Amino acid sequence: MTATGTAGEADVCIVGSGPAGAILAASLAGRGHDVVVLEAGPRFAFESRTARMDRALRPEHDDLDVWDMGGPRDRYTSSGTYEYDLNRARVKGIGGTTLHWGGMTPRLHPEDFEMETRHGVGRDWPISYEDLEPYYLRAEEAMGVAGEPNRFSGPRSGPYPLASAESSYSDEIFEEACSSLGIELVPKPLAINTEPYDGRSQCVGYGTCSPVCPSGAKYDASVHIRKAEERGARVVTRAPVQRLEHDDSGERVVAAVHATPDGGTRRQRARQFVVACGAVESIRLLLLSTSPQYPDGLANSSGVLGEYFMEHAGVSLTGRVDEPTRQHLVGYGTSMCEQFYDHDSGPEGSFLIDFDNNAGPEPVDLALDQLSDSGRIIAGDVIAPFEGDRWGDALQERLSEEYGGYLRCNGWVEQPPRRENRVSLDRSKTDDHGNPVPDLTLSFDGPERAVLERVQHLFVKILEECEATDIRVTRSPDNPFVGSHHMGGIRMGRDPAESVVNADLRTHDLSNLFVSSSGVFPTCGAANPTLTIAALTLRLADHIHGRLSDG
Asked: Residue ranges of the chain with pLDDT lower than 50?
């Protein structure tokens, strides 16, 4: 690549514009600091969301089409026993993966920070729940979380900013059955507006929250990128960072080298650097940033960069009841269960239950199935008239009989950190800039397997209590789904010999390089990671502000 120049020095250079990068940029720019954000992907026009929803609803499109993922830019390798679909779980562009997330925002539990001390699992976090709790509250306010305190979660110093969503019709069916079994459901905390908040509308019920919210009622990180730019931050899109460069001493990063749309490169200088491009890409960037001082990658003197990667594996069961369940009308679940989010059973770990409002086929899928039975559809086009009752009122009546009445339980489990689960570089395959692609090695053959089986047995009991028939295991312990929650690989810890960053998210090896990502999690608990990412980021913002203010 041909270098096309060096940008002036900023106070802070942030790599990535997902929830970590965006919230950090808005916080620091709001306190008068000169902030530059480098984003690998484009800026998606808000007005395009209706068209993206249309793509999500049409069977001829897949998940990658909605947010323009895939191709050489997004190549990866999955070499573990679990075939990991990385691109389904991420978006490159302003807002990052919050553009298509489900909005679920539970907190980690206090014991999650002390798993080594309590149960001999993994490593303790170098901070406690109590240290992070005020930032959890600030993160909920920043994102607009609707929820209700419950006795199974950790202590709170204040209320949720928004009232929880009303229970969906199918969740009321689950609540009655679970109550009979002694299982307590609680409102699900969601970063989805139940009333107008922070200049965004309340939910208007499009029902396509994941993968796209056309109204903007669901929080996404483009909200904080707009705030950051209003406060003076500069945001550079289509600027994938290729490597980080350090000074002669090897103690400070001096520049982030990013590609430009015209095929060149540009060096962005700054006083402080923050890698915030998601766990997988953050690991990859550090591994790519080799030098004579750091031949195994930047900030990797411990040799554990990329190791102890974690995911939430889950099982899913469906059943049918003899009444309408109004599925697909609400795009998010309204209830969950944290009752089993504990560690009383020791190393078996914990799990979280989520009740789904998108069970069963959608009407368009049923219609296509009915029509395709005749063999008259080729490449999606009807090429001849159908015979019999496959059209008009007869088809509508058939769809009315087949659609609805479905229920689904989802449950995901905590995965203990294991060194063999990792993100590394596949040097046999390159991206569109000639860089090795990320290689994910992941298996669920550890203690989490027993928990998955426990969850499956519990779900059978719940669905039977709902008087459901046709109970089916749609994702089993043998073939679990994943939560698309990338955690670990950039472990936070006190000991530089076995971790990458310290309690302040600063790398042990370089004095001005920080990482803000779920990659820093030493253990993962059973909670979705995004709220914890936001809380850690707000804590980091205070720390960097202090450093910059002190000169």
From this structure: 1-3, 347, 374-387
Residue 365: predicted pLDDT? 73
Q: Are strands 77-78 and 436-441 parallel, antiparallel or unpaired?
A: parallel
Residue 245 near residue 257 (C-beta atoms within 8 A): yes
Which phi-psi region, left, alpha or beta, contains residue 119 (left: φ > 0; alpha: ψ -120 to 50)? Answer: alpha
- At 26, which amino acid appears? A
Q: What pLDDT is attached to residue 348?
A: 61
* E strand residue ranges, 260-385: 264-275, 313-320, 335-337, 351-356, 377-378, 381-382
Pairing mode of beta strands 264-275, 313-320 = unpaired
Distance, C-alpha 102 to centroid of its chain: 8
Looking only at the bridges linking them, the beta strands covering 351-356 and 146-147 are unpaired
pLDDT reported for residue 390 = 64
The CA–CA distances, whole Å, from 204 to 92, 97, 214, 402, 458 equal 26, 22, 9, 27, 34
Measured CA to CA, the distance from residue 294 to residue 529 in angstroms comes to 30
For residues 9 and 271, the answer to whether their CB atoms sit within 8 Å is yes
Helix (H) or strand (E) holding 407: strand 406-413
Q: Would you give the DSSP letter of residue 334?
A: -
- What is the per-residue pLDDT for 372? 60
State the CB neighbour count (10 A cutoff) for residue 117.
Answer: 11
Question: Is 426 in a helix, a strand, or coil?
Answer: strand
DSSP 40-59: SS-PPPGGGHHHHHHHHHST
